[in-house]
Design brief:
The structure is a single chain. By secondary structure, the protein is α+β, with helices and mostly antiparallel strands. The protein is built from five helices and seven strands, in the order E-H-H-E-E-E-E-H-H-H-E-E. It folds into two domains: about 5-110, no CATH class; about 125-155, no CATH class. A hairpin with a 6-residue loop joins strand 2 and strand 3. The longest helix is centred in the middle third of the chain and has 20 residues, at about 75-95.
């Protein structure tokens, strides 16, 4: 069983360096492509020369992904984020095998929809002029400092 290094798979992504896309004592994450299982196994410290190594193995059941990383460089949340990112990319590769890495999304469909919903929420702005807004501020804070120069300060 010969491993395929994920860096070799990502060679068609030229705009973003691999180190930017995929960024601790080494841990191996195993994924099943039915996305029902994700396990982490602590390995010997510093078994990787890089900050993080990601390998894709072809097995009889499909593929396994192994992540080995330097614990001094990353916390568990960061590595779990990368693991979820890789899982998302793999899922897209399975669903659309002809898609290039450029065409893949770094977020899940649910994340895309949540972001779109957030961006579509528009607060209505008050239909008042700047002088009107200033007058309201003055009325709500008559004793607050409006201007300070050296030792001199003026309230509204």
């Amino acid at each position: 069983m010969t491993p395929i290094h994920l860096k070799d798979v990502l060679t068609d992504v030229k705009e973003v360096p691999f180190e930017t896309v995929i960024h601790l004592e080494a841990v191996v994450f195993d994924f099943e492509f039915d996305y029902q299982q994700c396990t982490a196994t602590l390995m010997h410290p510093n078994v990787t020369d890089a900050d993080i190594d990601i390998y894709l193995y072809k097995t009889l059941e499909g593929y396994d992904i192994k992540m080995m990383y330097n614990r001094e460089q990353f916390d568990d949340l960061t590595v779990n984020t990368y693991a979820n990112l890789i899982q998302t990319l793999c899922q897209q590769g399975i669903e659309c095998p002809d898609i290039s890495m450029k065409g893949m999304s770094l977020m899940t469909t649910a994340q895309d929809e949540a972001l779109l919903e957030t961006l579509q929420q528009v607060d209505t702005l008050p239909h008042r002029t700047v002088p009107e807004l200033f007058e309201e501020q003055v009325q709500s804070a008559l004793t607050r400092t409006a201007l300070r120069y050296g030792e001199t300060s003026l309230t509204y």
